Amino acid sequence: MAKILVFIENKIEINAIEKYDLKHAVIIAMNPSVGLELVRRGMSFEDTKSLFGVDGHRHTLKHAKLIVEGLRPFLNKINANGIQHAFEKTWIVYFRIHLYYLLTSLFIVNSAVQKYSPSKLIIVRDKNDNNSFGQIVEEYASSNGINFQNASKETSNKTSVKKESLLIKFITKLIFQFQLRLFSIIVNNRDTFLVLSDSNNMPRFVNKLSNHFTKSFPVYLSVQRKTLKIRMIEMCKGQTFSFLSIPKYTPGSLIVNFHQKYNNCAKEIKGWLYDSNPYSRSYGVDLGIHIMDYIEVDLKKKMVALCGEIISLNKLLAKVRPKSVFAQHNLGIGYALGEICLKENIPGLLITHGSHTPQKNSFPDYEWGIHAHQIFNGMYPFVAIQTPWAKSFLNKQIGVVSRAIETGPLILVKPNNNVYSKFELRCRLFGKKHAQKQIILHASSPKGWKFYRPWIYETLDEYIYNINTLIRASEKLPGLYLCIRFRPEEDLSLKEFKMSLVTSDCYGVYSDGSIEEFLMSSDLLISYSSTTIEEALQYHLPVMQFDSDGKYEHLKGKKLPIDGINSFSTVYSVLDENHLLPALEWWKENHSDDINRKLDWTEHVFENKDDMEWLEIMDIKC
Q1: List of residues 6+ apart from 310 with CB closer than 8 A
Q2: How far is CA 511 from CA 119, 166, 241, 507, in A?
Q3: How many whole angstroms separate alpha carbon 439 and alpha carbon 482?
Q4: Could you tell me which of 211, 328, 198 has the C-alpha nearest to residue 611?
Q5: Cα(606)–Cα(389) distance, integer angstroms
Q6: Is pLDDT above 60 for 127?
Q7: Closest CA to 348 of 372, 319, 380
Q8: Which one, of 352, 357, 409, 385, lies nearest residue 529 by Cα?
Q9: 201-248 residue pLDDT tens
Q10: What is the greatest pairwise CA distance in the chain?
């Protein structure tokens, strides 16, 4: 039995606990970066994988669903400028992320307490942060009769942030007004089409549109910092136009009215939470306090900002007067843009950058359905169907407003007409040493606790565990090379990720370069959940789904080795870590490019969808 349990959420908090005698303590590292720092300091710890597990995913999703669906009816009171659904859907997105953070934190704390029966908990709490993890642990300890001790943590001075924010708002407004005037000068009677953002391969799609239309003028509503230089060069050449800022400023009379609507909504939610509501408590902790703090402060700021953006958006649309609109997501101003298109009869097309597959299990089915509200199932007049799986998914959704158009991949990666030598690509990407081996590409989409999505994504600790299991299996099979595609996360940098992996020469970690080239040079994709699964199938690249907990299949696949290993498939599933090695061994010995060419890919891929005839359905003509 451990006498003391210590919970550490951030690396900086380790300094605060070093003064304690932790000889008989168990330290819980809430994310991999904390664990690595503890190792560096010679301190043992336990991560969250065994403490969370399948039960954690299930509990979090079930509890959150009861709260979200219970308060959803109150949200129709939040509206401005004739826009309502954008506020509701955006509110739900941010609220669920915060609610998941609360619920997962409590589940892990309770699991650790049940496992170790400690006499005391040590936390690191910033007393100026009412929603901190430390406060959650403290309240759990108080509610469950466990002694606790707070290791103090320095607080940051936030005074300058407010002043800087006011200055940024003023500058943003000036830039926006200047750009509205500038646009009128350079548009030169060309037909404009408005694009929500230049992220998610949208510039490639814009180029294709521009080649199709002779007198078109692409306008980006926002641009990424990393592509700002490219967009500025295009603006100087008169090729495109990019708005650099969308003000969030709301005029006095409108803001008073909006505040009143929001406050009334929050008041009703508060009454619902505290009216003998069993959902407002978790493991003895009053969630209602944390929920209302977030709703009345942080979430209110986001909704007020969205109200200001919608006012600016209406000014922009009056000046730009787009002939058509294209967007890759449904969140915030993106959702509002779709609502406006629907009201004003502007041909608007939503082109999702995400993953959508129909699910039979109720847990992922619900989670993907809610997730789709921010990138796929919105209020645009039209929605692009890029894969047969997206079509099947949308057909199952309730309350679909948009008219579906089968376009084939528009911003999902897809094979191009360039002639590549697979061997030359491998030599360039992996070196000649590995070019003649069978290449396995691993790509997945884990989420840290502050951006967590239950069931349909791995936690960071699950992600690392699954990859290390894959590495250990791969190194037992000579002639395999594992390419791990990694995107840095807030709680896991590239350096930290590499340090978290077991040592072996059978793999390499890659964070740069085109995903298309990695797909073209690989023989198999392994993933838990990722849009890359659907993109790999566009390349006729077989997919092996791996979940060591056996709870989730992104697509229904032939289970290896349970379903037998004598027949071939485009999609396989390995739902037990003990099955991974024999599954890889069978694939290595039996799969080949010849086999891939003989497989039926039609359930994954729309054939002959490389033209632009679908524009006629939107009534957009050259």
Answers
A1: 80, 81, 83, 86, 333, 336
A2: 44, 36, 30, 13
A3: 6
A4: 211
A5: 10
A6: yes
A7: 380
A8: 357
A9: 999 999 999 988 878 999 999 999 999 999 999 999 999 999 998 998
A10: 77
What DSSP state is assigned to residue 356?
Answer: -
Query: How many structural domains compose the chain?
Result: 2
Strands (E), 212-288: 216-220, 241-242, 281-282, 285-286
Q: Is 540 within a domain?
A: yes
Per the CB < 8 A criterion, the answer to whether 375 and 353 are in contact is yes
Give pLDDT tens digits for 128-168: 665 579 899 999 999 999 999 988 765 544 444 455 577 88
- Specify the residue for token string 């298109």: 341
Choose the final residue of a domain: 131, 156, 181. Answer: 156
Give dist(CA 236, CA 586) in Å, integer: 56
Q: Where are the beta strands (DSSP E) in 112-210?
A: 120-125, 147-152, 191-195
Token pair of 429, please? 């990407």
Question: pLDDT tens digit string along 520-577?
Answer: 999 999 999 999 999 999 999 999 999 999 999 999 999 998 776 668 999 999 999 9
Q: Which helix (H) or strand (E) element contains residue 17?
A: helix 14-17
Contacts made by residues 69-72, CB under 8 angstroms, sequence distance 24+ = 70/272, 70/277, 70/279, 71/269, 71/272, 71/273
Tokens of 311: 């006012």
Looking at the DSSP assignment, which residues form a beta bridge with residue 284?
none
State the number of CA atoms in the 13 A half-sphere of 223 facing the CB.
20
Q: Please name the residue ranges forming H helices in 41-123.
A: 49-71, 85-116
Q: 335 near 286, Cβ under 8 Å?
A: no
Residue 95 has, within 13 A of its CA and on its CB side, a CA count of 28
| CATH number of residue 490's parent domain | 3.40.50.2000
Q: Which residue has the tokens 């669920």?
A: 96
- Find where tokens 């549109």 sit: 209
Whether residue 345 is contained in a domain is answered as no
Name which of 354, 338, 436 is nearest 387 in CA terms. 354
DSSP string covering 488-535: -BTTB-HHHHHHHSPP-SSEEEE-SS-HHHHHHT-SEEEESS-HHHHH
CB 350 within 8 A of CB 330: yes
Question: How far apart, in whole angstroms, are the C-alpha atoms of residue 7 and residue 125?
Answer: 10
Q: Are 67 and 99 in contact (CB under 8 A)?
A: yes
Q: Determine, yes or no, domain membership for 79.
A: no
H helix runs in 373-493, sequence order:
388-396, 422-430, 432-435, 460-474
Instruction: List Cα–Cα distances, 581 to 248, 436, 444, 473, 577, in angstroms.
Output: 54, 21, 19, 5, 8
My answer on whether omega of the bond before 561 falls inside 30° of 0, hence cis, is yes
Burial group, residue 482, by CB count within 10 angstroms (0-12, 13-18, 19+): buried
The range of the structural domain enclosing residue 17 comes to 1-47+118-156
Going by their DSSP bridges, the two strands 403-406 and 382-385 should be labelled as parallel
CA–CA separation, 317 and 308 (whole Å) = 14
Q: Please name the amino acid found at residue 580.
A: L
Return the closest-CA partner of residue 380 out of 423, 326, 418, 419: 326
In a domain, residue 554? The reply is: yes
